Every structure is written in C-alpha cells, then in structure tokens.
Amino acid sequence: MELLISGSGLFFTPLAILMSAVGCLLGLIIGVLPGLGPLMGIILLLPVAFHLPAGAAMALLLSIYVGGSCGGSISAILLRIPGTPLAAATLLDGYPMAQKGRAQDAIGIAVTSSSLGGLIGGVVLIFFSPFLAEFALNFAPPEIFGMTLLGLISIVVVSQESPVKGFIAGVFGLLIATIGTDDFTNAYRFTFGAFNLYNGFHIVAMVVGLFAISEVIFQVQSGGYLAKPIIGKIKAPFSSIKLISGHLPNLFRSAALGSFFGALPGAGGVISSFTSYAVAKTRAKPHENYGEGEEGGVVATEAANNACCGGALIPTLSLGIPGDGSTAVLMGALFLLGFYPGPELFEHHKDVAGGIFIAFMAANVFLLILGITLTPLFVSVLKFPKAYLIPSVLLLSIIGTFAIQSSVFDLWVMFAFGIIGYYLRRGGYPLAPVIIGAILGPICESNFRRSLLISDNGLQIFIERPISAVILGIVSILLIMIMVKSFRIFQKGRERENTI
Amino acid sequence: MEKKSKSKRLDVLLALLFLIPVALVFQQSATSLSEQGAASGDAMTNAAMFPKMLAVLLGVLAIIQATSAFMRPKTDESIIFTTELRKSLLLVAILAAYLLILPVLGYHIVTPMLCLIVLLLLGLRPLVALIVGLGMSLAVALFFETALHVILPVGIFGIALPF
Known about the structure:
Chain A is mainly alpha-helical. Chain A has 21 helices and 2 strands. In chain A, a hairpin with a 6-residue loop joins strand 1 (180-181) and strand 2. Chain B has helices at 8-17, 19-35, 49-70, 83-105, 107-121, 126-147.
C-alpha cells in the first residue's frame, strides 16, 4: 500500500495518464499488425520515452506492452493470422467464432479477458514483488551473480530452436556487454581506439538494429507489399463484456496460470496461453466444443496472455531478472532512466516501483475502454498495406535511434546489429538472449568479480553460501537439461538422416 | 516471419563466425589490455578475466554447434535470387548509402529521398510515393524537432525546420 501511495504522485499527472492511453492505443495498433508485437512497439517508442519524465515514460512503455499483448488477438480472430505469437492460441476458437458471424463478440471477449486477466496479473505483481524484493535484500554479490546466470539460462532452456544456439546468443550478448570502459580498472576494453566505444554500444541502437531493422529486411523479403485483406465493418459492443460473466472461473484460473508462467523467466505468454487453453479444454462442460468457436477458448488464452505481463514484471522488478525480450527492454529503459530494478528499487525508489504498479493497472483499464470503442480503427489498420508499414518502421527506427544521443555512430551500430540480427534469425538463433545477455552482462561481471574480491577461497564462495549454492544448483540442473535437449535434437536429426 | 534455416552451409558458417569475437578477445587481451596493465592479477585488476571466460565458453559452444551442423544431412545450397531477395539486398545498400550521406546533406534532404526510394522499391506509384515520402519525413521531423526538441542532422547546408 505504501508503494502505491508513493507511486501515485509519479503516475497521477496529466502527461503520464495521457501517455498511458496513447501507449495502449499504439500497443493495440502495433499488436494488430502481423509481424510486429509488444516488443517492437516498446523498441520503436523507446527513444520517445527518454524525452519524457520518468512516470510518463514508464506509463507509455508499460501500456504498449499491455496493449501489444492483446492486439494480436484481433488479427487472429479475423484473419486466422496471429498478430503476435502470443495470440496463436486465440485463433483456435476466435477464428471459428468469426466464421460463425460472431467476430464482434470474439473481439469483445478477447479484449475484456485481456483487460481483466491483466488486472489480476497486476494484483499478483503488486502483492508478490515487494516480498520477493525483500527476500532479495539478503543477496550479496555471489547470489546476484547466480541470479543473472539463472535468468539467462532459463531463457535458453525454453528456446524453441536448439538450446545450444540460445546459449551462444546469450554468451554473445554477455560478451558485447564487456565492450567499453571497465568499471574496476578504467581500462578500455575492445574499443580499438575508437572513442565512440568508450561507453560500449548503446542498448537502444543494439535493440532497434537486432529486432526492428532485421524485421524490416524480412518483411521486404516476404513480398506482398500492396496486399490488403478483405474484411467487413466490425464494431465490438460493450454488451460483449457481459459474455464474460459466464466464464469467471475460467478467467480467474487462466489469469492465475498466466501470472505463474509469466513469473518464470523464459516461460512467457505463448506457453501460458496454450497451457491455459489446454486446462480450460479438459475442464469443459459436455456441451462446450473447444476448437469450434467456444467463447471459453478465447477467454482462457487472452486472460493468460495479459496476466502473464504482470507475472513477467515480478522477477524483472524485484530481482532485476527479465523474463523475456519485452521485459528485458523495459528493464533497459529503467536503467537508462536512472533506476535499477532489483531490491534497491523497492528500498530507495518506492515512488518508481509504485508508479509502475499503478501504470500497469491503468494500462489494463485503458485497454478495456480503447479496445472495445476503437475496434473499427484496429480492423482498418489490418487493411494497411505493408508498403507503407515498412518505411514507417524504418524511419522511426533511424530517427528514434539518432534522437537518443544525436549520434550518427549509433545509427551505424543499429545498421550493423540489423545485419547481425538478420543472419542470427536466418540461422535459427533467438534474439532475446542476446539482449538479455547485454543487459545483464555488467551486473553479472561486476558481481562475479566482487564475489572473488570478498572471498577467502576463490571460487568456493559460490558454493559456501547456502542461497548461492542453491541458485547455482538450479543453474547446473538447467545446464544438464540443455545438454539432454541438445543431444535429443541431434539424435532426431541423425535418425531422420538414416531414414532418408 | 522468417523461415527456419534449411542451409547446412549457413549453419556451419554462422557457428564458425562466432570464433571471430573469441579471437578478438584474446588478441586484445594480449595487446591493448596488457599495455594498459589490465590483463593480469586478481579480480580487481584483471579486466580481461571475465571476457576471456566468456570467450572460451563461446568458442566451445560455437565448435559444438559447427560440428553438429556439419554432421547434418546435406541440404540444397542453391540461392534463388527472387525479386524480394534482390529488393532486400537493395534496401540494405540504400540504408548504408543513407547513413553515409546523412551527416553531409542533412535530414531534410536525404530522408525524403530515402522514403521515396523505399516506397518506389515496394511498388508504389511515383506520385503517391513522392507525396507519402515527403509527408512521412516531414511528420517525423515535426514530431521529433518540435515535440521532443531533438536536433536532427542539418548537414553542410544547415537546413532545419523554421519553428
């Protein structure tokens, strides 16, 4: 409660409230567009956020995160194309509902479930983060080092592609973070005499390059620049909110599952929405036909999706361990705004932590209002040809990156990481571990070196301390899982080769 | 969305490319960091320790990945130069040229040209591309220069919005 009272001063300003509404609207629009998603929305608006006061900046970015996580459901329902991977499970029942002439109901249910699921996720966030942060206050450098490893390796374990590739991407990110001036010795590392590199690569230039520029290249390669889907006029009525009343147990259960999976680094929205869908299906009444346009299917997936956002913010804010790409960029934004997620945020910047909580809840309220009233706008956005979208993303990426430090060098960094991102994606390397590695890198290194400095027995300090030993034990188990998963993937490939 | 890589050659090549940063870490540790007196000693004075650990790990992982990719069945390595692939290569070249010229000629000359060329590349009619390109460029400039007070590159002609 104390946190919320402290945060109210930061959030309840006309600018922050306006940014919350604007962010939600932009998030919904970006989420609707296939290929883009909440992460891309946060990245494109990140440079704008840095020109705003802290409260308004976080309100903008969080609202994009919330709106973007829901927007993808609209294209999933209408076109059977999920705007974001998060909405992949929504099309299982959303699209059949639209085929039966109930598109407006499906959208109404999706938006309402997302909003209510998000609010439940927000309550979980508000309740659990301070406890976790308080526990983490006992953490010394060995434990913090262990947590950064745990955060990174969790992402790798759930990499859809080969875990070895996820691991490589994460270590590559950590290595990139070592470029620049060393905090301990003030030595210049890997700068090759270039003064532009004394502070390393700017995280925004890296993120925009890796995600936005590589996406632009992929979009150009996929063609269909002037294609427009044919969709009739659709307006979701507020009465569709009432439809939720018949699915309240499903809503609460799915939101709880979403919050839980969100809080596990790496698990994320896709796993939570498919799991919630599966659970809802197994608990269905005899007359409910999941997969054929059942309202409960949309409720389960969308409530889980947005509740997952609240869950994902728990380890991000209280431990400084981001759960996915979006929370990693949000964490990077907090760094650049001068706030360090982790126990200190709850100790020394109560207003910021509280402001984030309120901004998250407000974003979910705006989601309900804007998502229902502006459905016709989002439907018309779907008709927007790619030919206009690609240069818009390109231009915003370029000018946004330049605006951070008025630096053309940052633009070249963006360009280079765009090419790297493109080839990494083509090779099946996940990009999120690169960013998480780059963000966690300085924390990981400084705490590793501090641990060694306070240790009497060198590396033994990591296993002498109980919490650190437990964390590193979990890390070891995850590493074994990575090895087993990699070996299985390799064996499968060999078996396929033998059958050919 | 991108298709999953089917190319064995690309898979092996990408894994081996990760050995470049590994080599750079050791080269820099032996030269620049040594010269600065920051490549040896304890955790306080050894700035090369952590990057070297990461480099070793990255090297091992890259070799594992390259080996497992190499042992995969052969794939069709022919590159089909579709119009879209050519366009994406052209886009990268245009972007590089834009970044080279931007500091010289400034935002208000080069950016409308970039938008126009990209829109034409994506199949818009010249007149529509011209209007949309100019509109996009101006709208972004207006937002960043007036609302966020960002000074966009003015170039040798010193061109900026008059308000």
